[in-house]
Amino acid sequence: MKILLRGRLLDFHGDPETDSDSHRWIEDGAILVEDGRIVASGGFSDVDASDARVVDHRPHILMPGFIDAHIHFPQVQVVASWGEQLLDWLNTYMFPEEGRFADMAHAERMAEFILDEFARNGTTTALAFGSSHMTSVNALMGAAEARNMCLIAGKTMMDRNAPDGVLDTAQSSYDESKALIGRWHGRGRLRYAITPRFAITSTQDQLEAAGALAREHPDCIVQTHLSENRAEIDYTLSLYPKARDYLDIYEQVGLLSPRLHLAHAIHLEDREIERMAESGARAVHCPTSNLFLGSGLFAGRTLEQRGIVSAIATDIGGGTSYSMLRTLAAAYDVRQLRGDKLGILAGFHKATRGNALALGLADEIGTLADGSAADIVVLDPAATPAMALRAERARRLEDELFILQTMGDDRAIVETYVGGTALKGSAMLNDTVSDPYA
Length: 438
Ligand code: GUN
Ligand code: ZN
Prior knowledge:
binds zinc ion; 438 residues; binds guanine
């Protein structure tokens, strides 16, 4: 069955920060979808709509679905945990919570919730940490497969400095990661990410096991954390006294490559910046998390100028919103605090094509080009009374996008299509959350 989506169309084929020709904007546009893929797009009168069901989304904006480049699936019920900075926050709230994901029924309920929440927020792909238990990955992957979603996730590898209930061993983490890769990597739209949590919770043996997995599976993404918080860096260097710096710990086990996604990367030494640029390792900016945990201000412009590819992410549960619109707003604020600017088009590029490029998936997602997946978000820049009032004064596309970014959240998401299927408005989202006051 063919579906034709009609609306105002925006996507990117270049980076607005560096390319003079970066995007396509069509006031009366259309996207033709067949078997979950985009088969044509352009002006409404140019796209053949014969035998297609037409869904008229005018005057709303059709864009590629948002991509969240870093989230922690087992932290959904401990978002908004008060008062601590990174290490105490992990020990007090996150590690005990993640222990609950050994239970399949719990993991399955949380998986339904997070994927529904993605749909509410226009997020069509995420790169996710599971807990250290295989159950968490099985639950999340299974739920994503049922929605035909492009999801990348991995079991967290962690064998020290955390409670027993979330610890594995170097060997078991290798074996379980390997089994999960065999089960899920490349199945439908799913991919596996090799996921050592960070150097504090991994022994040298475990990081070497992660390095071995990365060598044995050269098409798997690798994700971990780097230099988020000063106390974290000090503790890390005390655990690895021979390392030249934090990044060197990952470098010595062979993890540096364009497949490596380093969440946070805030407090970097000059050598680390140089090696990240040379190796192609990605930095993942998580602005709401960095502000909430008081971690610091990501040096986005500097890192880009030094040749580092960066991605942008919510980092739920350190992050405070599932919305990539709220995340862009926080990224803008962080740049302001650094005396810098995040361009309006540049932000929307980051949340779509930019993140797809960082993940090595730009042919598949982050674009409305022919042949790519029909992962599409429909946005309403006048979604709330305050936004509608402000939008009366909007003159250009950029004005509307900046209203969406600055004032928008899940209410501005009219619809989210995953593989051509409407998951937000037209379909009922699962009601997995009970009323706590009932
Ligand atoms: N570093 C290691 N684990 C985590 C985590 O779960 N959240 C954040 N924000 N940083 C981390
Ligand atoms: Zn994280």
